[in-house]
User: What shape does this take?
Amino acid sequence: MSATGSGRILALICARGGSKGLPGKNIRQLAGRPVIAWSVEAAMGASLVDRVVVSTDDPAIAEAARAAGAEVPFLRPVELASDTADIYDAIFHALDNLEEEPSHVVLLQATSPLRIAADIDGCIRLCLERAAPAAATLCEPGKNPYWMFLMDSDGTTRPLIPRDDEGRRRQDLPEAWAPNGAVYVAETGWLRRERNFWKAGVTLGYVMPTERSVDIDSLLDFRLAELLMSDRLEAKTD
Assistant: This one.
């Protein structure tokens, strides 16, 4: 973390208690630690982050976050933690309940445990050096969208993105990137006005490797994260 202690760049980790896809995922044990602890560790290790705060409605998540070193100065109201709640309402609730408005907000979803401090710093640095109002992390998609199809009710298919050459080789397709949900950065005032981290032609993209881009939403995602985390930890001990 930044040694300034100014609180100018806030890392906000949002982690609600409810999850239909994988109940209890934010405190599920991943390589011997709660999932949320990996995000706290990455945020605490980021040299450009001044403060790490967790927004949650769940006391168990709050306890795990504090044990990992994050601040949990309040609990999020339950109405801001439902399946239909808007993440921006949760962000602004957190900002409104802090004693100082940061210059930048770095949103870190707890369900991206494989991101590291360098990913956070890289996205922040890109935003600052380019004087951009926002930046977010991307990765290579599992399948290029030019190879995706829509299927009509009668079973017939048509390209998601129409193209002239149906036989175009994969190597000839335009390069495409997918948001991985790991790091979002924005100037606080701009974020309040836009109520979005994404704005076409404005938000910068910071590319992360696919192996650090798993977003846990299901048991399959969690199993993949377990495998990749195991490989990472084994590599550190070699």
